[in-house]
Amino acid sequence: MIPWLPHEPLFPPVETALREPNGLLAAGGDLAPQRILAAYRRGIFPWFSPGEPILWWSPDPRMVLFPEEFKCSRSLTKTLRHKDYEVRLDTAFGAVIAACAATPREGQNGTWISAEMQAAYGRLHQMGFAHSVETWVHGRLVGGLYGIAIGHAFYGESMFSHATDASKIALAHLRDLPNF
User: 90-139 pLDDT, tens per residue?
Assistant: First the structure.
């Protein structure tokens, strides 16, 4: 049994998260910026489908990508050298999160990036916590990613690609940013 969250942005210890399903920690609460930021600071994130209560997760293990450990494939390195693209930061946050929600993924039906989630992360973007890294080709948004930046950590949420390597280009450029 998982706890139901109170109105305050409090969470149970992450050590109490379920093993199956891996990381399910709590349900309820809201998607207020203060709660989401409190969650991320503790290694917790919201993830639920439309029509479900808000579910909060902290899986073990968590994937952590250190910038210095990110290795580009030969083909991506070649693409990065050609510079047939432009990378922008935070110029189309709403379009990036909408594309992440709308882009079909193999083996998945629908998306967890509901209108409610888009609005919540949009508020965090307005506050300077949520960011997008966008890949543009000939003035058209073709790929990108979005996530939350707190301190020296960037919590990647989702990415999309409508052209070969477009989301990987955004990720490679994110790696090269000194601080968000």
Answer: 999 999 999 999 998 887 777 889 999 999 999 999 999 999 999 999 99
Direct distance between the N- and C-terminal alpha carbons of the chain, in angstroms, rounded to an integer? 38
Tell me the pTM. 0.90
Tens-place pLDDT, residues 5-18: 977 778 999 999 99
> Which strands sit side by side in the sheet containing 55-57, from one edge to the other?
4-5, 24-28, 55-57, 45-46
Q: What angle do CA 91, 158, 129 make, to 5 degrees?
A: 55
Domain covering 4-57: architecture = 2-Layer Sandwich (3.30)
Residue type, 97: I
User: Which residue bears the tokens 């579910």?
Assistant: 55
Pairing type for strands 153-161 and 140-150 reads antiparallel
Choices 3.30.565.10, 3.30.540.10, 3.40.630.70, 1.50.10.10: CATH for 67-175: 3.40.630.70
Query: H/E/C letters for each residue in 37-53?
Result: HHHHHCCCEECCCCCCC
Alpha-carbon gap, residue 155 to 148, rounded angstroms: 5
180 pLDDT band, cuts 50/70/90, is: low
Task: Please state, in angstroms and rounded to a whole number, the distance separating the CA atoms of residues 94 and 118.
Answer: 8
Q: Is 31 in contact with 116 (CB distance < 8 Å)?
A: yes
